[in-house]
């Protein structure tokens, strides 16, 4: 399997594996989906922890003391629940859920966050779409246990679970580009047309929106001794042999 290290930033990176004969179009669509779910889970981890501590979000104030739904944003007449915990930021109601359920939610969030962490790259563990989707479903289930009546549609956690959260502009799976070694991988080609047929090839690549300038290459780095990242010359047996003789291997973005 070819291993692609998708590196958008120091915090947003992951490994993806596929056969060398995989179409570039399929690779890009998979990578876009994984990137989207990774981003979603990272946001869920942040907002979900706040939810577990301080309850649902308050309605948005339009600047005149009224929310878009016509509620009084400054109203304090609502009866506080038994697990009330005032939010220092003032963004959430303070109506936290049962402490046991809240702890279960935080544990579920931590498991998901650990799966999408950049540490997975260091451990050489690729992300899988099915596992990512399962983590989102698990978070959704934990939230429903905490708040069986549901969350308001303006709560960031609810928006993240429903796909309506307005965060980073997502990559379009139909038009996104994948770049490696200063070149765009063309959708009408197979991956091996760019990287060679060696199934042990490992590259560093980056997603880019159509119409943007090509992303900068990763700095050239010496290999750390395990021959992890190679350019397309890795399909050449002589290049493979040089790794085991202690020669440095160059990696590109």
Layout: helices, strands, pairs:
Layout: E1 2-7, E2 13-18, H1 24-54, H2 99-116, H3 119-122, H4 129-146, H5 156-162, E3 177-180, E4 183-184, H6 191-195, E5 202-208, H7 237-244
Parallel strand pairs: 1-5
Antiparallel strand pairs: 1-2, 3-4, 3-5
Q: Would you count the extended β strands for me?
A: 5
Sheet with the most strands?
Answer: 5 strands, mixed
Shape, please?
elongated
Rounded radius of gyration (Å)? 23 Å
Q: What are the segments in which pLDDT stays under 50 over at least 5 consecutive residues?
A: 62-66, 221-253
Q: What letter string, H or E per element, gives the SSE order?
A: EEHHHHHEEHEH
Mean pLDDT: 83
Helix proportion: 25-40%
Structural class: alpha+beta
Strand order of the largest sheet: 2-1-5-3-4
Count, helices = 7
Strand content: 5-15%
Distance between the termini: 19 Å
Task: Describe the overall structure.
The chain is an alpha+beta fold and 253 residues long. It is built from seven helices and five strands; from the N terminus they run ββαααααββαβα. The protein has a five-stranded mixed sheet, covered by helices on one side. A hairpin with a 5-residue loop joins strand 1 (2-7) and strand 2. The longest helix is centred in the N-terminal third of the chain and has 31 residues, at 24-54. The chain is elongated and about 65 Å long. Mean pLDDT is 83; it is low at 62-66 and 221-253.
């Amino acid at each position: 399997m070819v291993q692609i290290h998708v590196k958008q930033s120091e915090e947003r990176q992951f490994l993806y594996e596929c056969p060398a004969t995989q179409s570039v179009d399929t690779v890009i669509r998979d990578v876009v989906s994984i990137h989207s779910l990774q981003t979603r889970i990272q946001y869920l981890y942040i907002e979900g922890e706040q939810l577990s501590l301080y309850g649902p979000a308050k309605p948005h104030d339009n600047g005149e003391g009224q929310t878009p739904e016509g509620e009084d944003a400054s109203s304090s007449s609502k009866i506080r629940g038994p697990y009330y915990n005032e939010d220092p930021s003032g963004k959430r109601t303070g109506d936290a859920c049962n402490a046991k359920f809240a702890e279960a939610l935080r544990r579920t969030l931590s498991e998901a966050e650990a799966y999408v962490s950049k540490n997975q790259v260091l451990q050489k563990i690729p992300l899988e779409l099915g596992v990512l989707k399962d983590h989102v479903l698990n978070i959704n289930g934990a939230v429903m246990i905490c708040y069986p009546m549901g969350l308001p549609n303006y709560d960031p956690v609810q928006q993240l679970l429903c796909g309506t959260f307005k965060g980073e502009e997502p990559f379009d799976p139909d038009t996104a580009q994948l770049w490696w070694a200063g070149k765009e991988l063309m959708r009408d080609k197979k991956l091996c047309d760019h990287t060679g047929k060696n199934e042990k090839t490992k590259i560093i690549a980056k997603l880019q929106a159509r119409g943007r300038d090509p992303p900068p290459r990763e700095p050239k780095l010496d290999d750390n001794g395990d021959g992890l990242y190679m350019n397309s010359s890795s399909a050449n047996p002589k290049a493979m042999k040089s790794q085991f003789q202690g020669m440095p291997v160059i990696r590109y973005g």
